[in-house]
């Protein structure tokens, strides 16, 4: 009876599945990202920024609560309690850990302190198309230098970094505003006291949706609230019609909505507020500090808000000038490809004194996606050259061939999955291999190898309708002396890149 019962018991096998909002990545995307980050990092270092690496986890109270669009019970972060009962959270950006690092090492650091950092961040937010809970950021920050000169440098650096990533200056612009001007707006509509803090945050998050929802959608978010396509309802800020009209006039002061000088429009709207005047002075200081300002694609647009709540001064955001299209010609809205701003209060949370700071964060995933859409990146990355292993007793020779190719700077590997010829070629195709190296008994006896150009073969196969003719002629493969392996492979690779 016991044996029968045991036979009926099933072994638990977990379902192979990835958590919602996360993704696996493989191959060419990782290579493209690594190469792009290397170019960006080189620009940061050329400007005098040193690399810094901080841990994935920080104490939750050190991170603070500055996230935009918080729709999770634990304020948008992934958290756990350590065995000492202290709460830790995965970092949601690279700036809050920087503030902790500066505060912890303040006396030993040079001021200003200039660092850049590349790494993953995590946000416990509602996932959606193109919106993941883990993504890579690439930041540069200057801590200890006041506005506007450090801000001007970061803006100029930002443009150079986007160019290094592979985007032409003609294809993007950097929109610049100032949180102090937003403070001037709050003075104008009577939301400047501590008692209005939550309302101000709601208003700012609503304003940050101007590009996405337009004036009508933002008006709903500023007023009674808005229901999206899925039926989810977002509570509004509860402003009256007059205040909503003032906010919309502010948002519509940008160059896309008026032919007037944006700063002149803002000066007219908020020139009687203390914060507005201060913000305008800093923006004019940025313009006067950047050589060839107009040629760098930098424009003033006070509708730029930036979602994070810790910004205290100038803020900036990079976008494409025109809508991108996918392979089927459908428009693709990329949104921001990076941004940043001044945050003079983050280190103060630890030190009790204001420490000026400004930085920028590059949207790595969006830049990669944009490069793919625009086809302005490097040519598609091929897989390794695959040396077929047709004879088990010749494995050392196959490994020698692969080693010679690698020594010459060519990615190469030996097939290790069995001796079936068709399966080996199928494997090479799946690996996106540009070339397969073949040496069976006949080639070995003749002191030769066969080079199969898989890229050319794929192109020619589309033109030949007679399979018999294709099998007999084999136009995409040829034999050479074994000693000519490296030079012949290099020649084929060079031809495939032309």
TrEMBL record:
Record: residues binding L-histidine: 93-95, 123, 137, 141, 306, 310-311
Keyword line: Aminoacyl-tRNA synthetase, ATP-binding, Cytoplasm, Ligase, Nucleotide-binding, Protein biosynthesis
Catalytic activity: tRNA(His) + L-histidine + ATP = L-histidyl-tRNA(His) + AMP + diphosphate + H(+)
InterPro entries named in the record: aa-tRNA-synth_II, aa-tRNA-synth_II/BPL/LPL, Anticodon-bd, Anticodon-bd_dom_sf, His-tRNA-ligase, HisRS-like_core, HisRS/HisZ, HisRS_anticodon
EC class: ligase
GO molecular function: ATP binding; histidine-tRNA ligase activity
BP GO terms, sorted: histidyl-tRNA aminoacylation
Main location (coarse class): cytoplasm
SUPFAM superfamilies to which the protein is assigned, alphabetical: Class II aaRS ABD-related, Class II aaRS and biotin synthetases
Protein EC: 6.1.1.21
Pfam families reported in the protein's UniProt record: HGTP_anticodon, tRNA-synt_His
Location(s), subcellular: Cytoplasm
Domain Aminoacyl-transfer RNA synthetases class-II family profile positions: 34-371
Superkingdom, taxonomy of origin: Bacteria
Gene Ontology annotations for the cellular component aspect, listed alphabetically: cytoplasm
Subunit structure: Homodimer.
Protein family membership: Belongs to the class-II aminoacyl-tRNA synthetase family.
Protein name: Histidine--tRNA ligase
């Amino acid at each position: 009876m016991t044996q029968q019962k045991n036979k009926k018991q099933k072994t638990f096998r977990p379902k192979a599945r990835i958590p919602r909002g996360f993704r696996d990545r493989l191959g060419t995307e990782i290579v493209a990202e690594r190469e792009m980050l290397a170019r960006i990092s080189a620009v940061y270092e050329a400007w005098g920024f040193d690399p810094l690496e901080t841990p994935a986890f920080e104490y939750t109270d050190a991170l603070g609560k500055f996230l935009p669009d918080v729709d999770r019970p634990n304020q948008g972060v992934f958290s756990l309690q350590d065995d000492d009962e202290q709460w830790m959270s995965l970092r949601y950006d690279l700036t809050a850990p920087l503030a902790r690092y500066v505060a912890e090492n303040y006396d030993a650091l040079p001021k200003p302190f200039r660092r850049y950092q590349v790494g993953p961040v995590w946000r416990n937010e509602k996932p959606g198309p193109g919106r993941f809970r883990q993504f890579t950021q690439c930041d540069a920050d200057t801590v200890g230098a006041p506005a506007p000169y450090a801000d001007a440098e970061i803006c100029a650096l930002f443009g150079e970094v986007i160019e290094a990533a592979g985007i032409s200056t003609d294809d993007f612009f950097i929109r610049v505003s100032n949180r102090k001007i937003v403070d001037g707006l709050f003075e104008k509509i009577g939301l400047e006291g501590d008692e209005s803090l939550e309302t101000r945050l709601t208003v700012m998050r609503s304003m940050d949706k101007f590009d996405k929802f337009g004036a009508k959608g933002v008006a709903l978010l500023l007023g009674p609230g808005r229901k999206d396509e899925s039926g989810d309802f977002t509570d509004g800020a509860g402003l009256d019609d007059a205040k909503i009209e003032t906010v919309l006039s502010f948002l519509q002061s940008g160059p896309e909505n008026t032919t007037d000088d944006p700063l002149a429009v803002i000066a007219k709207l908020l020139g009687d507020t203390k914060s507005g005047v201060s913000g305008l002075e800093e923006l004019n200081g940025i313009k006067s500090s950047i050589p060839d300002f107009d040629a760098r694609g930098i424009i003033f647009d006070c509708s730029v808000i930036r979602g994070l709540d810790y910004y205290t001064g100038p803020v900036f955001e990079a976008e494409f000038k025109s809508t991108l299209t996918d392979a089927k010609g459908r428009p693709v809205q990329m949104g921001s490809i990076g941004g940043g701003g001044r945050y003079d209060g983050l280190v103060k949370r630890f030190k009790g004194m204001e420490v000026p700071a400004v930085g920028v964060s590059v949207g790595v995933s969006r830049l990669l996606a944009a490069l793919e859409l625009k086809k302005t990146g490097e040519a598609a990355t091929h897989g390794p050259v695959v040396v077929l292993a047709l004879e088990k007793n010749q494995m050392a020779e196959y490994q020698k061939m692969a080693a010679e190719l690698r020594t010459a700077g060519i990615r190469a590997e030996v097939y290790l999955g069995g001796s079936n010829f068709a399966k080996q070629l199928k494997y090479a195709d799946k690996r996106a291999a540009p070339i397969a190296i073949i040496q069976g008994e006949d080639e070995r006896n003749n002191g030769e190898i066969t080079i199969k150009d898989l890229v050319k073969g794929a192109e020619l196969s589309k033109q030949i309708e007679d399979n018999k003719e294709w099998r007999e002629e084999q136009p995409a493969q040829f034999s050479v002396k074994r000693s000519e392996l490296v030079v012949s492979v290099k020649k084929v690779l060079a031809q495939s890149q032309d």
